[in-house]
User: What shape does this take?
Amino acid sequence: MYRELKEISRLQFITSDDSDLNHLEQIKLVLDNGIKWVQLRAKNRAPQELLKLAEEAKEILQSYEAKLIINDNHLVASMVLADGVHLGKDDETPENARKFLLNEIIGGTANSIEDVRRIEKHVDYIGLGPLRFTNTKKNLSPILGLLGYEKLIHEMQLNIPVVAIGGVVIEDIEGLMKTGVHGIAISGAILKSQNPNEKIKQFIKELEQYESVKS
Assistant: This one.
């Protein structure tokens, strides 16, 4: 089945419940500093509460011409006309989500080659991780490390972007990009930084050198 490859950002920001800033403040922070892709990850919210938050996030992101990806909930993504959804291993399957998001971006989480094979035909990018331990996510899958990325990406042989996730810091970028990943997703590296504005700019500058590389 033919699938159009969608434009996937090399630098993705994921909002967090574990921050002194609320989700909308986090979004404004990263948009003001040049990030153009935000995944709204607000856990354990009532459906109507999540919908309202997603609507508010969508309004902000639209004004910056940035992409909004909803974590976990494909129905909310559809209702707010988000740019897409990112689905964890225990969420709705990408295949079923595609019935609601015909042309939007669908990303899926993977930690093993078995995870990849299960979703590869139905997603536009794969969030592969975690690189290392992170407090941002509960029930963490086994740590991959750089060698894990190298091995899995070699096994995958895929023509869709792979995004590294899970405890990624700026010093990891060179090594990760050498494994063949398309880009990275970050959260704690920004939110826990003493100077998040400067840290975001450093991430953007570090990744700019790879923009001419096709992957």
